């Protein structure tokens, strides 16, 4: 039986991990290879690197970073942030990424999902969705450009469309919960799970062990992603897995 | 030197990096003479079965690989590369494989409450206690695939459960296959590659 995945997310700019990581004693607190190796040691099931820089030059730096990390760390790597063409995807996959996550570019041009899936296979194409509850419209609304730009899209309908076009996995961030440590948005993931059959990764709101238990027990997600609780050493991956194991959630 | 078969299917970089990490020199080649001189032949692969077989045929590699395996050359197929070792596949039609292992490749049933493709970490159950790959028992490895091998039990070293029992390591003398990605399965994956390397060094494939 497949294990539920625990996935740390690392924000990268200029080839360095931002927001530091202070659970390891690093001379360079932003060294991506050392941080990735430490997370592998803790039992992370996968790593997501998010390019938060905006220039093409820095995107080339990202491919170099993937080359380095994948020579030392042997687990699935997903790269997201600013990917807007099949050529961008190819460069990262060739460098050693296993999956690429597309967000704003997929909303602007949904055919990009299909083009990527046809060239590299559905399993390589993750569609990342940033969503927030719109009480007036009574729906989850999709946002792009790092959450700064609202769209007219309903997140559940967009998820279905993305999967129909070839997305092999969805990485869905609740903007309402992101940074709040108030727990994952369970109703968002329940609605998504009823709508699509591909793996769903929950993101946004992880604060404590109970939040991880809740998202796996009460929604059909395949993985849970978090950043700050892991980076600042508030929780370790092994803490999370132990708590899940005690509640009979299958983890590696 | 291990030769990784270069037939333009899938990402061989990560596999090369894993062998480099284990200090096993590799070369990426489609040259029959280089394959013949290698200590072992590694057959990688992602994508569709028929396209991969066509790519091997275009390079006249099908008889080369068959003769090498039959002459006792250690061979390791990984993911789609493992599936190519079997006799046939029903992926998008009916296609002949290399026929170095008995059995055929068929779709993972999607009506058993599991997601297809199987994508993620699954727990191995050892089926052959004396195998050189015994360290895999109870350990998780990383899978990405929609088809699986239906194999005689004597070839099955280990399995995982995903609706059905899916062979994760298969072996028939010098021909070994791994359905998971050892280059993406952390220390456990590296250990399986190291076990294969030891079998090659000792020229001992007697455990199966």
Automatic annotation (TrEMBL), chain A:
Subcellular location: Cytoplasm
UniProt cross-references to SUPFAM superfamilies, sorted A to Z: Ribulose-phoshate binding barrel
Class of this enzyme: lyase
GO MF term list: lyase activity
Leader peptide range in chain numbering: none
Pathway named in the protein's UniProt entry: Amino-acid biosynthesis; L-histidine biosynthesis; L-histidine from 5-phospho-alpha-D-ribose 1-diphosphate: step 5/9
Active site positions: 11, 130
Keyword terms: Amino-acid biosynthesis, Cytoplasm, Histidine biosynthesis, Lyase
E.C. no: 4.3.2.10
HAMAP family: HisF
Family affiliation: Belongs to the HisA/HisF family.
Subunit (UniProt): Heterodimer of HisH and HisF.
PANTHER family: IMIDAZOLE GLYCEROL PHOSPHATE SYNTHASE HISHF, IMIDAZOLE GLYCEROL PHOSPHATE SYNTHASE SUBUNIT HISF/H IGP SYNTHASE SUBUNIT HISF/H
Name of protein: Imidazole glycerol phosphate synthase subunit HisF
Origin species: Lactiplantibacillus dongliensis
From TrEMBL, chain B:
Membrane-spanning ranges: none
Keyword Metal-binding set for record: no
E.C. code: 4.3.2.10, 3.5.1.2
Domain of life per record: Bacteria
Residues forming coiled coils: none
Domain Glutamine amidotransferase: 4-188
NCBIfam families according to UniProt: IMP_synth_hisH
PANTHER family xrefs: IMIDAZOLE GLYCEROL PHOSPHATE SYNTHASE SUBUNIT HISH
Record's protein name: Imidazole glycerol phosphate synthase subunit HisH
